[in-house]
Structures are given as structure tokens and as C-alpha cells.
């Protein structure tokens, strides 16, 4: 009887949500994402009639409206993929570190990926899009390891507050180094200026095809770690008592999150706060069970980034506001709210 109870301990400790309620919310999230994707291909600097949308979906590009839709389709798909990747990455990082402030941007992972890409382009002549992805993932991994090591120093180990402070300091330092590398190089400064803000405006089917295998691998690793992350939420000692290899689970889950963050940054630039806002919002609907939380985070992250992209095209017509700016406007107040709710002295 004791063994049975131990096996069920992770589920028993989770905040319960009826399966029917979760499924209904999941269907609602799918419908919301579908509606936002439809709005993304129809709205922009030029509104397009639905007849042109349907014609463009069939491959037509004879009119200006159909040509506009043909360009918006890959942009929409990229926003969905990047938003889902950042949402899942944030949820996994919060689970691995048990840190409510964890986010690829706040922990310095995003800027580590950015610095490596910029350095490789400026000093080593990197031009391969696939090479960008590999370099960005390497930079994200090194940055994550560095921040965790620094945050683990001293009494108490890697507390949420120490990780957040180490990540913020590392992110600020890396951002300064990125500027120091880019500014003297007029040949690359123009292209990287928009990339540094974060956006999906340069989407194409080719870029989606290049990043898709990496994102698929990252999603697979993260989802496979969902159940062990539930055990980690109970504490390392209890998780080990339940048969989990704590260090291995933490390393593999972090690897999946780093792959998602690094690949996303290589293609769309450093987009912040999606990984912070989305998991917190999804816990209200799905509870803290990562087997539900991660799929919810994928859908919600995709919806948030798609909505931000649509808003950026509509608000400043005929110009675009990059999604990185809009997610920062949403995420910065939310970050302050999380800090105030959990209280710094309790983190």
C-alpha cells in the first residue's frame, strides 16, 4: 500500500482540475488560436476580403490582396511556432528551477543565444541559416549553465531570487556586448537592428523548414519530461525517493527548453516575456500538472505572439510594430505583478 501511495504522490500533490474542464479549455484555446490565425492572414496594412483569402490559400496570387495573404501565411505560421516554443520553454524552465520568475529572457538565455549569433556573423562570417540555429542553441546552453552556476553560489543554493538576479545581470551584460559587436560593423548593423528587437516579419517557408526539425525535437524532449517535472515540483529528495534521477531529469528538461529558446531566437530574434506570462496564465486553467500545462502553454504562447503580430500591423498602419516591443509592454507589468505577489523576501 505504501508503494502505491508513493507512486501516486506526484499526482496527489498537484492542483486538481476536472479532466472535462481541462478539455473544454483546451478546445477553447484551439478555437482562439484558429481565429487569431484567420485574423493574421486577413488583417494588416491592407485589409483583405475573405474571397481573396480563400483564393490565396488555394495558391492564387493574381491580385494585391491575394499576394498580401500569400506573404502573411508563412508569417502567421512562424508566429505560431515561435510563440508555442517560447511558451513551452518558459513552462519547463519554471519547472526545472521551481522559480516563478523563470523565463528565457529573464534568465539570460535569450541574450546568450543572441550574443553567439552576432559574434559568429561579425567575426567568423557565418551565413548559413542552419548555422545560426546551431550557434544560437550553443549560446543559449552556455548562458543557462553560467546563470545557474552563478545563482547556485553561496548559502541556500540556486534560490529563485538569486537566479533572477544572476539572469538579469547576465542579460544586461550580454545585451551590451551585442551592441558593442554590432555598432562598429555598418555592414551588418542594419539587418541586426530589427532582429535584436524580435519579430516574425521576415518569415518564409524556407526559414520555417530550417527551424522546424529543431523545434520538433525540443517539443518532444519537453513533453517527455512532463511527468518527471511533476515529481521535481515536490522537491529533490521526494523526487529521488519516487525513483526519479533528479539531475538527469533536470538536465534533459533544460536541454529541451534551451533547444526551443535557441532555435526561436536564431529565427525571430530575442522575444521576451512570453515564457513568463504564458505558463502563469495557463496554470489558472490547467493546474500545475505539466502533462496539461505544457500543451496549454504551447497554444497560449502561439495565440499571444500571433495576437501581438496582428496588433503590431494594425495599430501603426502602414508600418509594423515588432512583436518584441508588444510582448515587452505586456510582460514587464506582469513581471512586477509576480514579484509583488510572491514577495521578494519569500523567493
Automatic annotation (TrEMBL):
It holds the Pfam family FecCD. CDD domains: TM_ABC_iron-siderophores_like. Keywords: Cell membrane, Membrane, Transmembrane, Transmembrane helix, Transport. It is found in: Cell membrane. The chain crosses the membrane at residues 73-93, 105-126, 132-151, 163-183, 208-226, 247-272, 292-311, 323-340. Its main location: membrane. It is a multi-pass membrane protein. The keyword Cell membrane applies. Belongs to the binding-protein-dependent transport system permease family. FecCD subfamily. This is Iron ABC transporter permease. It comes from Actinomadura napierensis.
